[in-house]
Amino acid sequence: MNRQTLVPALTTATLYLTALTPLFAAERELEEVRVTATRTGETLLQQTPIAVTALSGETLRLANIKNIEGMTELLPSVTVSRNTMSGQLYIRGVGTNNVFLGGDPSSTIHQDGVYLSRPISLFNELLDLERVELVRGPQGTLYGRNSTGGTLNLMSKRPSADFNARLSGEVGSFERRRVSAYINGPVKGEAVTANLALLGSRRDGYIDNQHSAGQPDFGDENINSVRTALSLTPSAELSILLRADLFQRDESSPQYKPTLLNVDGSQNARALSDSASLLNDFHSLNIATDSRLDETHSGLSATLNWQINKQLALTSISAYREFDFDAVLDSDFTEVESRISHVGEDQRQLTQEFQLNYKAGALTLVAGVFLFDESSEQNFMAELLDFASPSVAKTRGQLDAQAQAIYADAHWQLSERLTATAGGRLSHEEKEFSQLHFFGPAANPVQTFEGDFEESWSDFSPKLGLSFAVSEDTLLYASLAQGFKSGGFNLVPEGNQFEPEEITSLELGAKLALADGRIRINLASFYYDYSDLQVSQFEVATSGAPRVVITNASDAEIKGLELELVAYPSPRWRLAGALSYLDASYKSYNAQRPGANTTDIDVSGNALNSAPKHSVIISSDFEQPLLNGSLNYRLSYHWQDEIFFTPFNDPITRQGAYGLINASLSFETQNKHWELQLYGRNLADKEYTNASQDFSPLGVTLAITEPRTYGLKLSRWF
Predict the structure, then answer these.
(1) 549-583 burial, b for 16+ CB within 10 Å, e for fewer?
(2) Which of 432, 332, 428 is nearest to 382 (CA)?
(3) What is the pLDDT of residue 9?
(4) Which end of the chain is less crowded, N or C, counting CB atoms within 10 A of the terminal residue's CB?
(5) pLDDT (tens digit, 9 = 90+) per residue, 106-139?
């Protein structure tokens, strides 16, 4: 499939559905989806002039999605990659493979209005979400933390005065055992309400380790999570929401499959001479080193909403978050004693956001102040066991970062149908960075470098837009916006600083409701001009230790089209789908391969990382009455084109086009007190990867993802 075929396909699909509108059942309309993406309170999705996708907690439950990685089957133009423990979120091809100290994500995640700054949070389990909203495109005039790619908003259930509770138990493949509970209700009438959610999950590993001296398997699961909220409503004008959460994980660290091939596809000589084994089974390894990951995340937040008068409201979001993790892994992923990596990080962050909402006459205004303070320390140690004299390379980095911003977004209704938007963000960020490097015998490595660095960056990012309501069922919009992400520092002695990246976005969109509201079609086309794109690459230091270095690609551009569809062919049958086209490439960039630090390679014209040219999402939900209840049949299919994990676009460091099939069958009693769900994921047992590493002396390695899994879940509502 190419652009010449996709663009007519999008047009044909839209015209075809329009022609079929008289055939759709008149008894059922689509639910009215409300979103908070504009930060002006709830607005109807079809009347919101930005590219936003909303998923309800009910949709996530029926699809049996447990984390952000699983959401890619429902969210258009989104991919998730990883670097061992940390996630990499890409929206419309905009993201970063930098997950280390000194940099920031390009596409952000907010949890209940609080920015999650470190990418290791991406794989945390979701716990009783009310909904999810994906906002695509540069963000700076609506949210506290700015982003160049977009933001994913996770909204937990808010306490209410209506008592309800749920208890769920689940068993599944690889000895999965999972229990979750939720309770909500009044503490003191409607003035004080609270909720509590709990989760515990265990599973054996899906990666078989064939080494007799190593642990039996990898890919196990051992997590515990708790989330609670307390809502205080002293008056009709004032409300306070307090939240707390804790997430713990203690399991094997993520594993990679060795290919024993170099990036050019040739046999790795070192692997051949050391007789490293290549197992045919994608989910089998041969490793003697025990691999562990231990991480803890926790947070507190307080959200205050004060309706000052009919026109003016104030919101304050104060939050503190912290996490720490320690991991050990065999980083050549073979039985050859070559590399063992130890990684650890401790992070603390404080955020404060004040936001004013003003509505009067034709004007709607959002204005805010955002403050961010982060302190983080990372420690790395690579055991170089294959040296003539076994050595270690140690690195310690300390980051203190502060960000301040003021932003505003104004909507002026020029006429009954025409609305103009203007906004801007003024950002200032400062980073202080220190690092220590050691190399030598494990018992007494010698300090080789010590450095302290600091830098600051300032930026103004404007936004302009127009929207036109052709009718109650059709909205057209256009926007021009800029995005900014500050520079940072590499955890290496030389060439350690990289510059900010900027993006200019032009977007045209349309939102249509057809067949008396039984079909919803959203279209978007966009063009991004990327300047000084931050790109992370693996390198091999002169000591022989692997490391990651971020550089600025000169320029890049992204062109894309998106179509989203939701429809009811009959009262009990719901269809949803999305088509995405991305043309994302470097305009001008010279990159260097690991171990070849003096040789520039022109990768201009190559595809950006994790940016599939085409992707398709299809899901079907059908409800059938049965006995004293109803059956829900759900089937979904997610297909994406090939993606690359490095700027060189080597065939060995890529994932070819593939599709995943997921399904569930749920029975719910008529009184909605009981539900039994049978589910399966990756039903075709597709072997695929979402990341690669090319620094191992034994060749390229590919991240191992889950095989086919299935399970049975029983839930009781009270």
Answers:
(1) bbbbbeebbbbbbbbbbbbbbeebbbbbbbbbbbb
(2) 332
(3) 46
(4) C
(5) 899 999 999 998 878 888 888 889 999 999 999 9
Q: How far is CA 375 from the centre of its chain?
A: 22
Nearest CA among 263, 255, 149 for reference residue 537: 263
Classify 29 as helix, strand or coil.
coil
Among 85, 86, 56, 93, smallest CA distance to 71 is for: 56
Count of positions (residues) in the chain = 718
pLDDT for residue 12: 46
Distance CA 136, CA 133 (A): 10
Tokens 């993520």 label which residue? 254
CA angle 33, 34, 35 (to 5 degrees): 125
Alpha-carbon distance 531 to 553, whole Å?
8
Residue 175 neighbours by CB under 8 Å, 6+ apart: 202, 203, 204
Helix (H), strand (E), coil (C) string for 362-397: CEEEEEEEEEEEEEEEEEEEEEECCCCCCEEEEEEE
pTM score, two decimals? 0.91
* Amino acid identity, position 187: V
376's tokens: 């983080």
Q: What would the CATH number be for the domain defined by 3-717?
A: 2.40.170.20
pLDDT of 14 strictly over 50? no
Query: What is the token pair recorded at 657?
Result: 């086009």
> In this predicted structure, what is the pLDDT of residue 546?
60
CA distances for 247 relative to 83, 88, 240, 294, 393, angstroms: 20, 19, 24, 11, 31
| Residue 609, CA distances (Å) to 184, 533, 675, 691, 709 in order | 43, 12, 41, 10, 28
488 is written with which tokens? Answer: 């940072």
Domain spans, the chain: 3-717
Is 701 in contact with 667 (CB distance < 8 Å)? no
Tally Cβ neighbours within 10 Å of residue 109: 23
Cα–Cα nearest to 154, from 123, 125, 129, 179: 129
Report residue 704 as tokens: 């191992």
Rounded average pLDDT over 60-69? 90
The structure tokens 């049996």 sit at: 64
For residue 461, give the nearest of 443, 488, 479 by alpha carbon. Answer: 479
Calpha distance 77→91 (Å, rounded): 6
- What is the end-to-end Cα distance of the chain in Å, rounded? 49
Q: Does the pLDDT at position 339 exceed 90?
A: no
Beta carbons within 10 angstroms of residue 4's beta carbon: 8
**pLDDT greater than 90 at residue 19:** no
Cβ–Cβ < 8 Å for 195, 184: yes
Neighbours of 386 (CB within 10 A): 17
Query: At residue 610, what are phi and psi to the nearest 5 degrees?
Result: 50, 45
3-state SS class at 270 = helix
C-alpha to C-alpha distance for 664 and 624, rounded to whole angstroms: 14
Quote the tokens at residue 670: 């008529």
C-alpha neighbours within 13 Å on the C-beta side of residue 350: 6
Strand, helix or coil at 570?
Answer: strand
Asked if 44 and 34 touch (Cβ cutoff 8 Å), the reply is yes
For residue 4, pLDDT over 90 is answered with: no
DSSP one-letter code for 24? S
